[in-house]
């Protein structure tokens, strides 16, 4: 059996990896790896148990290739948030050295992991023989194939794993998907030594941050309209928020990246109901490094005939192919829980 995988990011390379383990001949086509940050954060502090389960499994998978670096995770939440759903060991604190907390707020302390994602993806791309080409998806008579470098690539299975370009490639092929692209940003700062130890999710003020190589720290928030560029005063706004918590930080530059979201705010995977050999994995928004490898494993199981039902199956969301990406609450985000309970 032959699989053609489009997209050489986390979702594409791990799907290819597991398909090859299942005995498939794999042809990977994936443009350059363009992660805005060298290491991405994997947290087990998420409101949904299914996501925590996927993140835990992804961590096990990463450990086959690299040694993730452990850091302290500080989630700042209002005191009234119900933590009974947090399926990971945690400690609740009223104060954290180097971070200002106000009355009525709590810090939920867990352990996060910095994953050198760029390195892992590059390693797997090389090992699996991904070609560095741009692919077009084509659908004819209910079957998918791929065109890359002027050549037609046929597979028993075609996997679409092209990140924020999934819905664009699908539309060009005349089919639709419940996915939408958006812009996401990170501001890189010089920050004090105290904060390098922490990955912060501030769900009261609305920003998140993580250490890069000392003395650099990255922080950002939510969602921008695709193609519009950062909103005016973005750097100033994030800088004001982060300063309220940690004091002086010096902004260096703004990095723009592209993300993709599905209507339920989580990732999805599965077979396209109208195209017999086309499988899709995407919609990872801000947590593809956390859950991507484990979801890729589930997709490979599904393709190999051992699928399971879960909240991430594509079929559940096919009815919603047009929606506003910035109106979606991201599943991994405690902020979404706050909104539901407010
Ligand atoms: C600033 C920023 C910070 C982030 N921080 C974190 C974090 O700390 N933790 C976390 O879990 N997530 C984080 N994310 C989100 C994470 O990067 C994404 O969820 C993840 O990269 C999605 O993986 P993917 O494989 O679906 O897509 P991508 O990683 O975007 O990979 C898609 C690949 O497909 C290729 N491609 C696209 N179109 C084609 C085509 N036509 N032909 C061939 N190849 C194609 C692209 O070149 C790319 O290599 C962050 C994102 C940004 C922007």
UniProtKB/TrEMBL annotation:
Residues 138-302 form the FAD dependent oxidoreductase domain. One of its GO terms (molecular function) is oxidoreductase activity. Keywords: Flavoprotein, Oxidoreductase. Pfam families: DAO. One of its GO terms (cellular component) is cytoplasm. Its cofactor is FAD. The keyword Flavoprotein applies. The keyword Signal does not apply. It comes from the Archaea. Belongs to the DadA oxidoreductase family. This is FAD dependent oxidoreductase. It comes from Pyrobaculum neutrophilum (strain DSM 2338 / JCM 9278 / NBRC 100436 / V24Sta).
């Amino acid at each position: 059996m032959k699989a053609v995988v489009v997209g050489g990011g986390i979702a594409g390379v791990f799907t290819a990896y597991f398909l090859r383990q299942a005995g498939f001949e794999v042809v990977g086509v994936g443009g350059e790896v363009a992660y805005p940050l060298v290491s991405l954060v994997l947290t087990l502090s998420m409101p949904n148990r299914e996501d925590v389960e996927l993140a835990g499994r992804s961590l096990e998978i990463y450990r086959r290739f690299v040694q993730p670096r452990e850091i302290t995770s500080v989630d700042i939440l209002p005191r009234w948030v119900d933590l009974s759903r947090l399926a990971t060991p945690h400690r609740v604190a009223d104060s954290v050295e180097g971070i200002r907390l106000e009355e009525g707020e709590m810090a939920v302390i867990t352990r996060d992991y910095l994953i050198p994602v760029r390195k892992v993806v590059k390693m797997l791309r090389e090992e699996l023989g991904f070609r560095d080409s741009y692919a077009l998806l084509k659908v004819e008579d209910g079957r998918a194939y791929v065109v890359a470098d002027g050549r037609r690539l046929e597979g028993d299975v075609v996997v679409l794993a092209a990140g924020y370009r999934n819905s664009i490639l699908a539309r060009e092929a005349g089919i639709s998907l419940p996915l939408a692209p958006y812009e996401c940003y990170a501001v890189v700062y010089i920050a004090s030594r105290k904060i390098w130890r922490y990955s912060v999710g501030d769900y009261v003020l609305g920003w998140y941050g993580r250490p890069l190589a000392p003395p650099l720290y990255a922080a950002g928030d939510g969602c921008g309209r695709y193609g519009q560029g950062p909103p005016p005063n973005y750097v100033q706004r994030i800088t004001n928020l982060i300063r309220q918590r940690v004091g002086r930080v010096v902004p260096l530059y703004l990095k723009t990246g592209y993300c993709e979201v599905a209507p339920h705010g989580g990732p999805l995977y599965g077979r396209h109901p109208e195209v017999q050999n086309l499988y899709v994995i995407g919609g990872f928004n801000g947590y593809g490094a956390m859950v991507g490898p484990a979801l890729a494993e589930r997709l490979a199981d599904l393709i190999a005939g051992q699928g399971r039902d879960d909240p991430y199956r594509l079929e559940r969301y096919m009815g919603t192919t047009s929606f506003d990406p910035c109106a979606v609450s991201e599943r991994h985000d405690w902020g979404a829980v706050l909104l539901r309970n407010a």
